[in-house]
Automatic annotation (TrEMBL):
Gene3D superfamilies: Winged helix-like DNA-binding domain superfamily/Winged helix DNA-binding domain
Top-level taxon in the UniProt lineage: Bacteria
Pfam families with a match to the protein in the record: PadR
Transcription regulator PadR N-terminal domain: residues covered: 15-88
Record-given protein name: Transcriptional regulator, PadR family
Species of the source: Solibacter usitatus (strain Ellin6076)
InterPro entries (UniProt xref): Metal_resp_DNA-bind_regulator (IPR052509), Tscrpt_reg_PadR_acidobac-type (IPR017799), Tscrpt_reg_PadR_N (IPR005149), WH-like_DNA-bd_sf (IPR036388), WH_DNA-bd_sf (IPR036390)
Length: 110
């Protein structure tokens, strides 16, 4: 599993990126993070919701309750235009950071 501080620091970017293509609910996001990271990143659903609520208050995502017959009600989150801008800024910041880190450590030449 990845370092907890690194995971925490990248959580918002991860959630925004996973919401870039379509709306998703919290449990789906947690499972997708595990699957796409080969279980290197894991977020408990209980820890995702406070992040999603904060992102909703900050207008980065929009939540909507959806009920399907025979299933429990779920809150789906989708990216807002402000969320797309925030994701682009996160990506650029990480790109700059990783480039600098690679230069300092020689990691990209290993």
């Amino acid at each position: 599993m990845a370092n907890a501080d690194m995971q925490k620091g990248s959580a918002e970017m991860i959630l925004l990126a996973l919401l870039e293509q379509r709306a998703r609910h919290g449990y789906e996001l947690a499972k997708l993070i595990e699957a796409q990271s080969a279980n290197q990143l894991q977020f408990h659903v209980a820890s995702l919701y406070p992040m999603l609520y904060r992102m909703e208050r900050n207008k980065l995502v929009e939540g909507k309750w959806v009920e399907k017959a025979g299933e429990r009600r779920r809150r789906f989150y989708k990216l807002t235009p402000a969320g797309r801008k925030a994701l682009a800024a996160h990506r650029e910041s990480w790109r700059t950071f990783v480039t600098a880190l690679n230069r300092l450590t020689g990691f990209d030449h290993a």
